[in-house]
Amino acid sequence: MKRVVVRKDVYVDSVFLMLMSKDIQARAEVETATVAMGTPMNVQLLIDQGFPKTEVAVAKPTDLLVALDCPNEKDLDEIESFAFTLLENKHHPESSGEAAIQPKTIGNACKDHEDSNIAIISLPGIYAASEAKKALQHNLHVMLFSDNVSLEDEIALKRLAWDKGLLMMGPDCGTAMIAGKPLCFANVVKKGGVGIVAASGTGLQEVACLLDRFGAGVSHAIGTGGRDLKNPAVGGLTMRMGISAMGADEGTAVIAIVSKPPAKEVVDDVLETLRKTGKPAVVHFIGAHEEDFSLGPNIQWAHDLEETARIAATLAGSPVPPREYHDRWPFDVDHETIDALVSRELEGMQSDQVYVRGYYTGGTLADETWLALHGPTGGVWSNNHTDAAFVPKDPHTSVAHTIVDLGDDVFTVGRPHPMIDPSTRTERIEAEIADGTIAVMLVDCVLGYGSHENPAGAMVPSLVKAKEEARKRGG
Fold this sequence. Notes:
Blueprint: E1 2-7, H1 14-25, E2 32-37, H2 40-48, H3 53-56, E3 64-69, H4 73-91, H5 106-112, E4 118-121, H6 125-137, E5 141-144, H7 151-164, E6 168-169, E7 175-178, E8 181-184, E9 191-198, H8 201-213, E10 218-223, H9 227-230, H10 237-248, E11 254-259, H11 264-277, E12 281-285, E13 299-301, H12 305-315, H13 335-347, E14 355-360, H14 363-377, E15 402-405, H15 423-431, E16 438-443, H16 455-472
Parallel strand pairs: 4-5, 5-6, 9-10, 9-11, 11-12, 12-13, 14-15, 14-16
Antiparallel strand pairs: 1-3, 2-3, 7-8
Helix pairs in contact: 1-4, 6-7, 8-12, 10-11, 15-16
């Protein structure tokens, strides 16, 4: 028995709603439970799950949706009451044992914490820019986790930050490490002499972790947000300011840059800023070619994230071991073994199982995958693709070989990032289980602060179900 409750103009952050849904789902009398904002994506998901369209479709993005499926009316009443008790405790934290006094504004927070110099903001995009502006006006550096912020707002915020000498990390900045302190999606790594500035969250994380593995360490890591270098109007302002900060920092001996290829109008200013630091540096522009850039005497080119970390660690004085299995890269066993594994898997497949599907939570990891597969497969579709001809018209629907970045803005309106909430990915996998043309499913697992505690385990039931369905079809 299904029930939908719509609370008009009640905003609750998506991470709390995810946790609230889990608490409700854990009750024995609940078959399914979803608590979410009434975004078009969430509304459609509930309709697809069999909730009445007439009841669900009235919700607007500013409305709260509570969708419950229980065996009977009595259970529905009890669980609805439980749900709104959880919500009430959110709005009145003293009743749940949390601190009763919580600042309601940036200004009050600054008064209560006078020594603070950075604000981390995670709000829906339509509200985030105004709060980020307030933080900058209070002379705080800003890490803006929020996505779905307009380009115009981003430009205005970054110009304001530039004029005030403040870092404006983001919007859509998910990772930073300042003076050894991990912020949002980040990892525990050694303190060291390599400073990272990246327009790539998972790229930053991977380079930082590899530096730690190679015996080097990180002084600071600054995220910029994906449009910082990509859009000429933004002008790479955060990247340039971050590079300058690393250049002035006594604890930073080497600078590492990770980004998708910058806009032509931006790249010269970025590289010139890097040259002016005089510090040894390494640059990795994902999917770009060294010959397209004039680097300068203090800048080395890296072809991938691992090479970025290897070069940076070497420049920082760490004795980096040679790349293992260099002649077999990217595999760690010989090609004969790989060929045997491929042949074994192909023997069990149907002739129409021909496509690769990748379900990624890290945008950089998705980019690396489609770039590696695009040539050998004859073409890969992706919502991250740089060629518009290979960008699916509907990002929710796969086409032939598809690598989807589920952390893209379109998937996170009113929902937590999929690195936090695996359901975005598991729902996509299960939606494509019936597709008999899929030969391989690829996934990433990103670990660290902020991420789901067990992303691999969360996927297992969906992947097992996909394999079982394929076997039933003879694949």
